[in-house]
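User: I've been trying to design a sequence by hand for this structure and keep getting stuck. Would you show me what you'd pick, starting by listing the structure so we're on the same page?

Assistant: Good idea, let's start from the same input. This is the structure you sent:
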């Protein structure tokens, strides 16, 4: 990867794109420190507490902009929610499905719908956040109608500005703009997370237990990164043979190719869905109680302990949390795969093109064969995602850490964005080499 970046830096066009991307990310980080009027950052940090709900997840993705009560507090989460909604509606609404199949113009229209829907969701989420902070009593300074519109419109404008920055990076920079912004937000939290872990284990002095903890964290981090890179590129290639056919005076077909099916076809989406649902109960309790979470060991305390990582001190609550989390990841892996991958449509397209899988009859047997392989790969992919997601929970339970700010979701996002950006740089370098050869 370093060699690829070094070679890309030598090409003027790619160097300009790299510098432009870096400059836009600096602008994003600058905006993450611009405060919102009439909002107390101290109350926001107290509101986050242990980090067991959706607001803490927002804070990680925004690089601390949420806890600091800044303009970028909502981040790109409204845009991501809008993208998920549009993807689901594309399957259910025929008009959107036809629009998605229109090529570049159709994608532009869908992107426009997603953009406006994301801004609308930002306003709704900002209004909900204002009501929540207003119930706390100390977060809003001089609450009034004017204060409401000032804070909510500032949040909405910050999200719209981030969406614009992401589109600029996609068009004039490197990689996917929204993904790069999320990547920058997560990376910016690494020094804070490392400092917090240092204070918990080595802040009072260097001990044998603290050194063992540091060594264990480094080993787990390296193993997790290696594991993620290996499984992200893993795929099953189904061989496909195309029969020869004569059209006019020319003969077509007779070629051998394959259908690559990734093990982690859903990417990070199943783990995001699962973590959002697991954080939902703690979020509801925080909204209804104004930030006052239960501390005495009662039924509500244990229920939240089983649904929120690190909330309760009992070890068995972490085990129950891990099991429920893994089952949700398994469910959403199959659910997301069923939306993104259609074996029946793939088999019909192969049949129309004269393609077949050796030893498998075209049509329904082919679709059933592909579905069986996809189901097995989904099981392996779900197990992989569950291991990555639960690993921080296990580390936190073993070493008695209240909350790990950089978890499995963050690790998957950082790895995915980094690999995809490097692949895009390599493809652009290859394209320029071919262009020079043709000239």
């Amino acid at each position: 990867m370093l060699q690829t970046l070094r070679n890309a830096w030598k090409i003027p066009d790619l160097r300009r794109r790299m510098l432009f991307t870096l400059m836009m990310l600096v602008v994003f980080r600058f905006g993450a420190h611009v405060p919102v009027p009439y909002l107390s950052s101290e109350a926001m940090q107290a509101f986050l507490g242990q980090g067991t709900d959706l607001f803490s997840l927002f804070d990680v993705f925004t690089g601390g902009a949420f806890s600091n009560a800044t303009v970028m507090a909502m981040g790109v989460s409204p845009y991501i929610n809008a993208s998920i909604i549009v993807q689901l509606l594309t399957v259910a609404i025929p008009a959107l499905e036809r629009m998605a199949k229109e090529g570049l113009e159709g994608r532009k229209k869908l992107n426009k719908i997603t953009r406006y829907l994301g801004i609308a969701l930002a306003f709704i989420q900002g209004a909900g956040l204002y009501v929540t902070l207003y119930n706390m009593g100390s977060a809003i300074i001089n609450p009034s109608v004017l204060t409401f519109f000032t804070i909510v419109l500032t949040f909405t404008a910050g999200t719209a500005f981030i969406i614009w920055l992401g589109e600029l990076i996609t068009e004039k920079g490197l990689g996917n703009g929204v993904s790069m912004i999320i990547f920058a937000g997560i990376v910016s939290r690494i020094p804070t997370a490392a400092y917090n872990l240092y204070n918990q284990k080595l802040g009072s002095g260097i001990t044998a237990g603290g050194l063992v903890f540091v060594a264990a964290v480094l080993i787990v981090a390296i193993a997790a990164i290696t594991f993620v890179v290996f499984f992200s590129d893993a795929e099953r290639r189904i061989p496909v043979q195309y029969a020869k056919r004569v059209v006019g005076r020319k003969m077509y077909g007779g070629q051998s190719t394959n259908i690559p099916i990734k093990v982690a076809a859903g990417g990070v989406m199943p783990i995001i869905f699962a973590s959002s649902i697991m954080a939902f109960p703690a979020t509801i309790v925080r909204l209804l109680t104004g930030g006052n979470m239960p501390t005495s060991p009662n039924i509500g305390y244990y229920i939240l302990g089983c649904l929120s990582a690190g909330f309760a001190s009992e070890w068995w609550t972490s085990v129950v949390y891990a099991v429920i989390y893994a089952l949700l990841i398994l469910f959403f892996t199959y659910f997301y795969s069923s939306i993104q991958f259609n074996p029946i449509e793939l088999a019909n397209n192969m049949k129309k093109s004269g393609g077949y899988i050796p030893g498998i009859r075209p049509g329904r047997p082919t679709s059933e064969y592909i579905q069986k392989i996809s189901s097995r790969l989904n099981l392996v992919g779900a197990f992989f995602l569950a291991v990555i997601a639960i690993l921080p929970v296990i580390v936190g339970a073993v070493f008695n850490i209240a909350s790990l700010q950089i978890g499995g979701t963050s690790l998957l996002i950082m790895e995915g964005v980094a690999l995809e950006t490097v692949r895009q740089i390599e493809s652009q370098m290859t394209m320029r080499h071919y262009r020079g050869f043709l000239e």
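That's my pick for every position. To get oriented when you compare it with your attempt: The radius of gyration is 24 Å. The mean pLDDT is 77.
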